[in-house]
Amino acid sequence: MVAAFANSTALAGKPAGTARHPKYLTIYLDAERFGLDVRFVQQIIPLPPITIVATSSEPIAGVVNLRGRVIPVIDLRQRLNMSTYERTRDTCIVVVEGIHDRTTGLIVDRVSDVTAVPPDIVEPFSPANLDIDPRYVSGLAQIEKGVLVLLHLENVLAPSSAPPPPPS
After folding, report:
1. Predicted TM-score (pTM) of this structure
2. Beta-sheet pairing, 122-123 with 32-37
3. Which of left, alpha, beta for 108 (phi over 0: left; psi -120 to 50: alpha)?
4. CA distance 28 to 119
């Protein structure tokens, strides 16, 4: 599944939908479905060896070498305060770029597809829906496959020691 996204025009710097229908990369953490704004997704890579580094309080799993560039990798489960898991052959890294002027990898259980989400179907997130810090979620969208939790990447990638900026 990872290779299928490597050639996707939405992930290769092409326009990501129309102003009316932003597109989201569907990722899974356990059975939960999350959406990442494809405007920030650079690529999806199979899980390479991760070099562990001593870090501050950020949920950095380590760093990886991405074609000669060393990038930090965040365990998205840890960031969202979800339970740990066994990594499988579907576990991969979604490389995001352009947030806080850096490139970062996000470890996810698996990726699925790219979905256009009309803004009029996005509903506000309530902590009663999921046990996730509401600053990390920009909304919920009911799509054909079920509920898609739209992540607010600017807040997800903000350093843990600093409070994330308010949702825009």
Report:
1. 0.81
2. unpaired
3. beta
4. 21
